[in-house]
């Protein structure tokens, strides 16, 4: 596979950099002649071009997942996820969680709820807790959020009820 145009351009720039430095020294210019504002503007332009290239290459369909150089592979154990569903046919509380998270962060709340409604409640709860934590930290108040045994029992019970209901015939609307 041939390197992309941006990679070739970057390689050319790296190869021409020493030549540019030699030419600058021949004209009596040095890096100290470069103002801080010029250096900042050049760095900003280079970073912007790199970010735009990365987004253009990886943001297209299958751009990230189809590129083995940047795709982060799941460990083998995670690829074997869903053993409860595979062995028993029972949906666990986490089934559909990744699809739900993907839909949620892309703003598709209905698809997120269809994939895993409990996870959406969890995302919203986490957002509230995180906001409380940030506000308290900014105000200099103690940043301590503890869940007592009552809250843990409530969370466990909700998770169990969700699991049971999504596996009953009338809970089909909760299937991922």
Structural features:
single chain; 176 residues; mainly alpha; 2 domains; 8 helices; 63% helix; flat
Instruction: Determine the fraction of residues in helical runs and give it as a percent range.
Output: 55-70%
Mean pLDDT comes to 78
Low-confidence stretches: none
Based on CA inertia axes, which overall geometry fits?
flat
Largest pleated sheet: none
What amount of the residues lies in strands? under 5%
Structural class: mainly alpha
Total helical segments: 8
Distance between the termini: 38 Å
Report the count of strand segments: 0
How would you name the oligomeric state of the polypeptide chains in this document? single chain
How many domains comprise the coordinates?
2
H-E order: HHHHHHHH
Rg over alpha carbons: 26 Å
Describe the protein's architecture and organization.
The protein has 176 residues and is mostly helical. The chain has eight helices and no strands. The chain has two domains: 5-58, no CATH class; 76-174, no CATH class. The radius of gyration is 26 Å and the shape is flat.
Outline of the structure:
With 176 residues, the chain is mostly helical. It is 63% helix and 0% strand.
Which helices and strands occur, and which strands form pairs?
Layout: H1 5-26, H2 36-58, H3 76-79, H4 83-88, H5 97-105, H6 109-115, H7 117-138, H8 149-166
Helix pairs in contact: 5-6, 5-7, 6-7
């Amino acid at each position: 596979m041939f390197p992309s145009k941006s990679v070739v351009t970057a390689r050319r720039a790296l190869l021409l950099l020493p030549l540019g430095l030699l030419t600058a020294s021949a004209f009596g210019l040095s890096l100290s002649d470069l103002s801080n504002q010029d250096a900042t503007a050049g760095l900003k332009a280079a970073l912007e071009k790199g970010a735009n290239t990365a987004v253009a290459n990886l943001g297209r369909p299958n751009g990230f997942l189809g590129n083995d150089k940047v795709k982060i592979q799941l460990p083998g154990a995670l690829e074997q996820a869903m053993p409860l569903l595979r062995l028993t046919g029972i949906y666990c509380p986490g089934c559909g969680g990744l699809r739900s998270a993907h839909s949620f962060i892309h703003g598709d709340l209905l698809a997120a709820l269809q994939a895993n409604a409990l996870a959406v409640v969890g995302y919203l709860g986490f957002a509230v807790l995180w906001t409380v934590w940030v506000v308290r930290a900014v105000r200099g108040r103690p940043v301590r959020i503890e869940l007592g045994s009552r809250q843990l029992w409530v969370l466990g019970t909700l998770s169990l009820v969700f699991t049971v209901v999504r596996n009953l015939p009338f809970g089909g609307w909760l299937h991922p």
